[in-house]
Amino acid sequence: MLLSRAKRLLVLVGSWDFYEFQLTDVTSELHPRWHWKNAMAQLKDDFKLKRAVMVAARYPADDSDAAVAAN
Questions:
Q1: What phi, psi does 11 have (nearest 5°)?
Q2: Model pTM?
Q3: Which of 43, 5, 52 is CA-nearest to residue 23?
Q4: N or C: less crowded end of the chain, CB within 10 Å?
């Protein structure tokens, strides 16, 4: 996950499904990840209200010449 915040721009890079999965067991305000659950809820609202944009990842086709590096 990568999280960057400038004065007017928040950039969150990662898998939305992964973030949601990590928060499935968060049901109490006492949970250590409760603040992330609130942040995700705020982002969902912002997507609906067009105050935020989710950009889907695009992966090269299997037959393309694009190089994909893996560690």
A1: -120, 120
A2: 0.65
A3: 43
A4: C
pLDDT digits (tens, 9 = 90+) for 9-57: 777 778 888 889 999 999 999 999 999 999 899 999 999 999 888 888 7
What is the C-alpha to C-alpha distance for residues 20 and 10, in angstroms, rounded to an integer?
A: 18
Segments in the chain forming alpha helices (H): 16-22, 34-48
Q: Are the CB atoms for 14 and 1 separated by under 8 Å?
A: yes
Expressed in percent and rounded to 5, the helix, strand and coil fractions of the chain are: 30, 10, 60
* Domain ranges, ordered by start, for the chain: 15-55
**Tokens at residue 22, please?**
């990590």
Task: Single out the residue of 64, 57, 53, 65 nearest to residue 18, CA to CA.
Answer: 57
The rounded distance, in Å, linking the Cα atoms of 50 and 16 is: 17
